[in-house]
Amino acid sequence: MTYRVTHRTEYRYQSDVTESYGELHLLPRDLPGQVCRESLVRIDPEPNDLRERCDFYGNRTVYFAVLEAHTLLTITAESVTDVEGRQQAMSNVGSQPWEVVRDRLRHDRAGAALEASDFLLDSPMVATSPELLDYIAPSFPPGRPLVDALAEFNSRINRDFAFRPGATSVGTSLTELLEGRAGVCQDFALLAVGCLRSLGLAARYVSGYIETYPPPGRPRLVGADASHAWASVFVPDTGWVDLDPTNDQFVGDRYVTTAWGRDYRDVSPVKGVIYTESTSDGMEVSVDVLRVDGPA
Prior knowledge:
Blueprint: E1 2-17, E2 19-24, E3 34-44, E4 49-54, E5 60-66, E6 70-83, H1 88-93, H2 98-107, H3 111-116, H4 130-136, H5 146-160, E7 162-163, H6 174-180, E8 182-183, H7 185-198, E9 203-210, E10 228-235, E11 239-244, E12 249-250, E13 255-261, H8 264-267, E14 270-275, E15 280-292
Parallel strand pairs: 7-8
Antiparallel strand pairs: 1-6, 1-15, 2-5, 2-14, 3-6, 4-5, 9-10, 9-13, 10-11, 11-12
């Protein structure tokens, strides 16, 4: 599959913003099964500084600075990405009991396993807890194959929590999410990460996109009108297995990955600082993920 992604964010202010500094995680990264062929970021007004680097986790991170007065800031990211074989890791997991995966990670401190151990720890938005362990435990009885446990856990989140924009905010805790039982894809990804870490598995938060308009006869996925989020769990000798609780499925070739980190704060699509006495007059986000044929 080849996808063209256009992500546009527009900020409006009631009076002049004198300076605006931003950090963006909007460009797809290269990884097994995914190659970004073209990408660009446009900022209006034209920035005084615009640069890209890789962050601690290897994510493509764009920084910008707009130093002229403005009441409208528009950020547009475009990319063309090839995706193929994203579910290959699933076939390599086999029937390993989930405890074997957990225990191997505890004792293996080399290579990819050492890097994954960072995702066993609490992070600013995800703290392990008895409540999270109680929620995930029914899906992970002793001896159950990891793939089967993940599939049921994915389905339970999808069934137990309503997709309801506006039900949560960036400051909503996982405890509040468990009580309210409603949120959006970012919430469900954070919940999955917290539960998996509470169980002793390495889990990371992944940000990206899903196909906006599916092929004829295929269902339209939830969350396609904005950036999407899901969770990923590490399996020694196999790699990372991605699961999307919002849509009750494992991540496949209809997904484009931009970044991953410990939680949302590491890889939020757009964040920054502005200097102004104005108040915000609103933000609009539009995302299109379109399948294209042949070279871009």
